[in-house]
Amino acid sequence: MKKILLPLLLISLASAEVNAQEGNGSNDFNKWSIDINGGVNKAANPFTEGYHMNANNLFHADLGFRYMFNTKFGLKIHGGYDVLNDDGDNPDREFETTVMGVGIQGYANLGRIMEFETWTDRIGLLGHLGVGVSQMENDLYGDADRLGNFIIGMGAQYRITDRVALNADFTMVNNYSQHKTWDGRDYDRKGRQGFDSTLYNATLGLSIYLGKHEKHADWYIDEKSDELEDIEDRLGEMETMMNDTDKDGIPDYLDSEPNTITGVAVDNKGRSIDKNNNNVPDELESYIESKNAEIKSEIKSGAITVNGGNTSGGGYIKELINGGYVNVYFDFNQDQPNRQSVNGVNFLIKYLTDNPSATADVIGYADEVGDSEYNKNLSNRRAENVKQILVDSGIDGSRLNVIGNGEDTNANNSKYGRKVVRRVTFVLK
User: Fold this and answer.
1) What count of other Cβ atoms lies within 10 Å of the Cβ of residue 90?
2) Residue 64: predicted pLDDT
3) Three-class SS of residue 199?
4) Cα–Cα distance, 64 to 76 (Å, whole number)
């Protein structure tokens, strides 16, 4: 027994020391408690045929020293003592067996993990799991039968004061390497492997808390940590809200048009300015007119020559469209353009009308939410619907090549980013 117990003790003390050093000066709660319990026991097989014991058999007692690393997890070294007696129905089958054991268990403060503090500051719940060794003795045999134990249990708590709590515990001890029956006879294992028997304990007891602080880890609530966590969450939300996906100077959460053509002037709600209501942003329209005037002036002066008499400034417009500045956008899981996309569609119609020899690839995209095959089909439907709008506006369908590119993974896991990648773009040829 000593060979097994000593390593367990050293492991527990080393773990406690490491955690104490890591948390030194940072915890305002007590970590140590003495847990004292007593109650009833019930042993399951093996019994000699005809031997039994009551389910409410007295006597069980245990004593433990528990150390909590933090408010949720801890370690306990404990010792237990059981007296097992027959049920008293048959004087010829009386027996008395004693079991004494020690063990080490990990503890989880389930009440704190499940946030019981949101509805009570008096009731708690502890779960525990561990290993141990024990020896069983009976007058029928001389040498003690030594057992290995696997221990699992759960206990309810009621805080009486900050120094004392009432606890009720139910524990199951599974034993292996057992060679005697509980009533003291030889146990024919018949080649069995693994667990040979089970001992159940149901107890009531007290947890006595030690330390200089007001509360023990079982009941301590780190209000400062909760506040800091709340502040961090709020800052994270604000950071997301302040994203400016279309780079127009208006944060996404205030932007009524979160996919404005890049570089054009917007109002204080992020909408492109179009005073003459021709569905082309004024700043972009002004740029195009300026370039057209520049080209006409150079043609007039003979600085450049033009093939086919085209003085529309189409090269500049083509550069804007192919550069990704003109797009059509869609709401989530929709294949019809949203209302903010009128500018993009009309802008392309104007170019294709002014340049009857031009053709265009109409390229659809979807965000990465959902199934990839579904998103591929959705991106294709989006491109097809935009093509139909262009055809309905007088553009020959043979000039338009539809491409469904599926998912665009450049959304940076942001809901505002996903708005921008749900689009149709154009490549003019």
Assistant:
1) 11
2) 97
3) strand
4) 6
